[in-house]
Amino acid sequence: MFKKVLIANRGEIAVRIIKACQEMGIRTVAVYSEVDKNAPHVQIADESINLGDPTPSESYLNIAKIIENATKVHAEAIHPGYGFLAENPDFAKACADTGITFIGPTPEVIRLMGDKIEAKKTIAHADVPVIPGYHGIQQDLSTLLKEGKKIGFPLLVKATAGGGGKGMRIVHAESELEQSIESAKREAKSAFGNDSVFLEQYIDRPRHLEFQILADQHGHVIHLFERECSIQRRHQKIIEETPSPMMTPQLRETMGNAAVAAAKAVGYTNAGTIEFMVDGKQNFYFMEMNTRLQVEHPITEATTGIDLVKWQLRIASGMELTLKQKELTQRGHALECRIYAEDPSNGFLPSIGTLEKVDLPNGPNIRNDTGVETNFHVSPYYDPMLAKLTVNTENREESINKMIWALSHYVVLGVTTNISFLRKVLDHPEFRKGNITTHFIEDYFHNWLVTKEGLPLDALIALAVYDALHTQRQEVVRYKEADPHSPWQHVGRWRMGV
Amino acid sequence: MFINYEHNNHIYNVTVERREDQFFITYDNNEYTVIATELKPGQLFIQLGDRVIKSVISQGDENKFVFIDGSIFKVKRIELTGRKKTEKREGDLHSPISGTIVSCKVKEGSPVKKDDIILIIEAMKMEYLIRAPYDGVIKKTYFKEKDQIEIGQLTAEIQKKEEKNGSH
Questions:
Q1: In A, which residues are within 8 Å of B64 by CB distance?
Q2: Which partner for A58 in A18, A33, A37, A53 could form a disulfide, CB atoms 3.0-4.6 Å apart?
Q3: Who's near A87: CB < 8 A, 6+ residues apart?
Q4: What pLDDT digit, counting tens, does each position of A418-428 carry?
Q5: SS3 A288
Q6: Band (A171; pLDDT cuts 50, 70, 90)
Q7: pTM flag (> 0.95)
């Protein structure tokens, strides 16, 4: 096992990884940018390195700087967390070239899975269903039109280099196809400098299900069941759960086997996630593979009892996976909410500011993963996710109720958060029934306003009490000055004479 | 003391007097007597009759954040200059906020129906709508697009439509 690991990340995930390392007796090195110098991940690490400039490209994304520092402190391995450099094949390669173990798959696998088209082709060869589509290099209009008609409608035109919905069009009929391809290409060209697109069958209101994979360097691959991550806003997950309310034992076995087959097909090692889209008839299609630890990994840990980060470290150090697929079981139900500094009633725009008070809910089977604390400044440089809240209970209904309780005791003051919004989503009758799709937020919370009812009376009373408590002294002083015969005068003088 | 709180473009007028741990609060013509203690900085335990209000309040540079019953409200304490009467009431034609007129939907002499939009005021990237309180005819408008408006200023006057005889 490694003696020293550098964690090339920040926030809750850096804290999570540092704790796992420390429990295993591994010395930890945190890295931080100027604005994070007092952040929790720096405080709990055994050593820390200042990367300087908070701009990500100068700090958490700076491969040369991180490798140079890792060498300097003699770190044997680097854990990239998620985001930042976690899925950057050049970083994994730079680690390997310097003799540092990258805690994740090989650079080749990261590169292959990073190319969404190549990934689908490779996975399709392993007999894993992929969405019917055209991913060819022929980009002339007549080819695209011909291929589009072959796929049928509705279909999706998507920029190859795309992301965040840019260069993406849903085409409902053949008559719209030509115009949609051209406009998607124009948008892709200006957004990514590359106008190549692909076409895919469009699945209306799918569910997003994913399978957790663990693969060692000795050919053992297992899956740790599914996570349902359909509740998303702006194509980002906000609520995840396991097991999925739509899952059946048969489908779980079929999808789990497909996920293992996909991982084996690319020679995957370490922890990874196979993402699937599932339509209303339980047809599932491979979407992509995330070659890293996922944000939502705690719900898998809560229901399987397996520590994924510790297994990442063991696998990276060459140890064999001793977990057997047949012996794995899932117990109860787990739910995770992502706590964001953002305003759900204003397009989920990030909210920046100082956290004046942070007080987290506690109780049996409530897990807080957090990288912030009171007085932490939420800066505009990084992702606005502040923390994750995970609960696990015997069943889905109990988990929902426990989560609502925990959220209603979750105090984060100083920035606008999505906490009230999360509560409303969880309490929605369709969510409670398990009728969720990736369009859930758009369908039911399109123009949601957090405070349409205005300030409640109790808030006004609390405010008035607070202000009365905090302005009292001035009032007293004012009375004293106004009335020379006031008893306060005598009290004052008398005290001064003591 | 008189305090004005602004939340979501609405103004709330509150008065509070303190006698030791007792607080006398008036809001909207009701008086509430509560007993309160600050357990930790910002953490309040308030008894209102047989009911307990638990709240956490933080004081930022500009805003206060109030945590109550699982919800968080961003509130600003404001000093009202000039007119006192700015409390938001149904159909009030006074501006509840200082801002910019982004749109004026009516002209003098134009008829309006109850709830028609008269003006849209923008402040702090939020829009606030002034609506007609009743059916009538616009008698006077005081602002046009891009004008600045101050809190408490009258936006328009409406000649109320005469009730028809015998309509009960």
A1: 463, 466
A2: A53
A3: A110, A113, A114, A290, A291, A292
A4: 999 999 999 99
A5: strand
A6: very high
A7: no
Q: Does B42 touch chain A (CB under 8 A)?
A: yes
A477 Cβ under 8 Å from any chain B Cβ: no
Under an 8 A CB cutoff, do B36 and A354 touch?
Answer: no
Please identify which of the residues A292, A314, A396, A423 carries the catalytic annotation.
Answer: A292
Is A207 assigned a catalytic role?
no
Read out DSSP for A18-78?
HHHHHHTT-EEEEEEEGGGTTSHHHHHSSEEEEEE--SGGGTTT-HHHHHHHHHHTT-SEE
CA R_g for chain B? 20
**Partner A contacted by B120 (CB < 8 A):** no
CB contact under 8 A, A461 and B3: no
Instruction: Express each pLDDT in B26-81 by its tens digit.
Output: 999 999 999 999 999 999 999 999 999 999 999 887 889 999 988 889 899 987 65
Could you identify the residue written with the tokens 């426990």? A402
> B64 and B17, same structural domain?
yes
> What is the C-alpha to C-alpha distance for residues A148 and A473, in angstroms, rounded to an integer?
75
Q: Determine, for residues B16 and A467 on separate chains, whether the beta-carbon distance falls below 8 Å.
A: yes
Structural domain span for residue B49 = 2-78
CATH of domain A4-103: 3.40.50.20
pLDDT of B71 reads: 87
Q: Do A458 and B57 touch (CB under 8 A)?
A: no
Q: Which residue has the higher pLDDT, B119 or A477?
A: B119
State the pLDDT at residue A89.
96
The CATH code for residues A132-201 is 3.30.1490.20
